[in-house]
Specification:
The complex is a heterodimer of chains A (109) and B (122). Helix content of chain A is 0%, strand content 45%. In chain A, strands 1, 3, 4, 7, 8 and 9 form a 6-stranded mixed β-sheet that branches. Chain A starts with 8 loop residues before the first strand and ends with a strand. In chain B, strands 2, 4, 5, 6, 9, 10 and 11 form a 7-stranded mixed β-sheet that branches. Chain B has a 4-stranded antiparallel β-sheet with strand order 1-3-8-7, with no helix packed on it. In chain B, a hairpin with an 8-residue loop joins strand 5 and strand 6. The radius of gyration of chain B is 13 Å and the shape is globular. Classes of the chains: A mainly beta (109), B mainly beta (122). Chains A and B meet through strand 3, strand 7 and strand 8 of A and strand 5 and strand 10 of B.
């Protein structure tokens, strides 16, 4: 089965840039979606199709995807960005299945 | 405004069944696939399965961990998606989220409900 690997945690100072990686075999050939989940809340879509932003998501959130790594970048980090972040793809190697990354806890110092 | 409201969660014994409902509003329900995603306490997100819209055959896909035990269905006339869970195991304990999407098979889950907690315990 397809596996997506994320770093368990990323720490960043306010105003700096956070980069969250999502590793998978030839992930650059897939479409990657990113979700933000704050404690006690449902996830929220922040990036879809590698680099598109839903309405209402700040331009500070951006995404890229190439080779074996997709990256979510949060620029000018704010305290309110502290959350868990998950990448997600669809794997059609056998059946058509959704796959989530292991999740990354972003801590704002 | 898109809204998804889950219901039907609760405490159930291992081996028993439970049916979750997801009531949707704010969009044309029949035009979208609907998915279920779960999250065990303190753990990450796990995709459970989805049902395509009638335009795409209304077919279903499931995670290996629930295939043969869980069934997703939909009632477009009522804007409700269902998750029928049979032969429940303790490892099925989780918050279950209803999500809209994927609109096409590679698309995102663009809206999420608040979730309903299912606890499987004797």
């Amino acid at each position: 089965s397809y596996v997506l690997t994320q770093p368990p945690s990323v720490s960043v100072a306010p105003g700096k840039t956070a980069r969250i990686t999502c590793g998978g075999n030839n992930i650059g050939s897939k479409s990657v979606h990113w979700y933000q989940q704050k404690p006690g809340q449902a996830p929220v879509l922040v990036i879809y199709y590698d680099s598109d932003r839903p309405s209402g998501i700040p331009e500070r959130f951006s995404g890229s995807n190439s080779g074996n790594t997709a990256t979510l970048t949060i620029s000018r980090v704010e305290a309110g960005d502290e959350a868990d972040y998950y990448c997600q793809v669809w794997d059609s190697s056998s059946d058509h299945r959704g796959v989530f990354g292991t999740g990354t806890k972003v801590t704002v110092l | 405004e898109v809204q998804l409201v889950e219901s039907g969660g609760g405490l159930v014994q291992p081996g028993r069944s439970l049916r979750l409902s997801c009531t949707a509003s704010g969009f044309t329900f029949g035009d979208y696939a609907m998915s279920w995603v779960r999250q065990a306490p303190g753990k990450g997100l796990e995709w459970v399965g989805f049902i395509r819209s009638k335009a795409y055959g209304g077919t279903t896909e499931y995670a290996a961990s629930v295939k043969g035990r869980f069934t997703i269905s939909r009632d477009d006339s009522k804007s409700i998606a269902y998750l029928q869970m049979n032969s429940l195991k303790t490892e099925d304990t989780a918050v279950y989220y209803c999500t809209r999407g994927p609109y096409v098979d590679t698309g995102p889950f663009d809206y999420w409900g608040q979730g309903t907690l299912v606890t499987v315990s004797s």
